[in-house]
Amino acid sequence: MIRTTSLTKRYGPITAVDGIDLDVREGDIYGFLGANGSGKTTTVRMLLGLVLATSGSVEVLGHTMPASARTVLPQVGALVEGPAAYPQLSGRANLALFDSMGAAGERRTRAGRVDDVLEQVGLGGVDKRPVRAYSLGMRQRLGLANALLGRPRLLILDEPTNGLDPQGIREIRRLLLDLHAGGTTIFLSSHLLAEVEQLCTRVGVLDRGRVVLQDQLSELQKPTGRIFVSTPDVARARTLLDGQVEAHDASSMLVRVSDAAALNARLVQAGVRVEVLTPERHSLEDVVLAATQASPDRVELS
Ligand code: ATP
């Protein structure tokens, strides 16, 4: 759905995006994770043809961007930083206006679609208020509503939960999961690890302009081959398991073995009381920290 090859953007002496190869597949919710200033917005703008790459290439929906923007953009819903809207008009009027500029359609179905997307993003009840009176979170929702107008196959969203309170973040997460379940592929940038961990199926990590990690979330979080066991009988268990216990304290231990069910059966048969037994997995935070610390030292961009 999105493929970039050695994509690079320089602003004078600053390399904002440094030779990245993104691979976003159909059906992904792809989390593009990076600290502030790491180059996420610049990348999103290049995907949409809003910023020209210094070098490298971008393919969206199988077409080269920005050359094929006319073919590609009608099939893509986009939310870029600071969504644009006419401040004196209501959210509904803004959407109607954007919709009339976009895909052709019957006036009646268009009005229905505006209602649908307002409802979808939780702005159904505030349609008379002018956008200048909107909070940042409301503007963000309006931007998202606009992205949904054309029922896109692909959504490209730059920090979609920016400015939303926890309730709003949860609603948008649910909405994105619903859209994904309905077949929409989603690419979203975020600086929030927890957000990406809860929502995404695939993760790319950007560190000072470089992609330092890109993989399926399930692969990054697969079991490590060690099992955590909490038991009041650590001494007995250690004797039983001999050299397989890698670490322990008074009430728990880490055992190097991959079959949790077999380990449980073995412990219980030997009379070891098992309180908790769970395969160890790396958190996304561990994986991201390891990848960013391992990335080559470069001057921090501000
Ligand atoms: P944030 O989450 O804060 O928006 P980001 O990850 O989206 O950060 P970018 O906005 O893409 O990062 O910026 C990456 C780097 O490029 C930064 O050092 C930024 O100052 C620089 N940069 C971005 N746009 C321009 C521009 N138009 N001119 C000069 N430098 C720019």
Strand order of the largest sheet: 7-8-9-4-10-11
What is the H-and-E element order?
A: EEEEHEEHEHHHEHEHEEHEHEEHEH
Which compounds are bound in this model? adenosine-5'-triphosphate
Shape: elongated
Strand content: 25-35%
How many DSSP E strands? 15
**Number of separate domains:** 2
The CATH class of the largest domain turns out to be: Alpha Beta
CATH fold descriptor of the largest domain: Rossmann fold
CATH architecture of the largest domain: 3-Layer(aba) Sandwich
Describe the structure.
With about 300 residues, this protein is of the alpha/beta class. It folds into two domains: about 1-220, P-loop containing nucleotide triphosphate hydrolases (Rossmann fold, 3-Layer(aba) Sandwich), CATH 3.40.50.300; about 225-280, 2-Layer Sandwich (Alpha-Beta Plaits). The protein is built from eleven helices and 15 strands. Strands 7-8-9-4-10-11 form a six-stranded mixed β-sheet, sandwiched between helices. Strands 1, 2, 3, 5 and 6 form a five-stranded antiparallel β-sheet that branches. The chain has a four-stranded antiparallel β-sheet with strand order 13-14-12-15, with helices on one face. About 35% of the residues are buried. Mean pLDDT is about 85; it is low at about 300.
What keywords describe this structure?
302 residues, alpha/beta, Rossmann fold, 2 domains, five-stranded antiparallel β-sheet, 11 helices, disordered C terminus, binds adenosine-5'-triphosphate
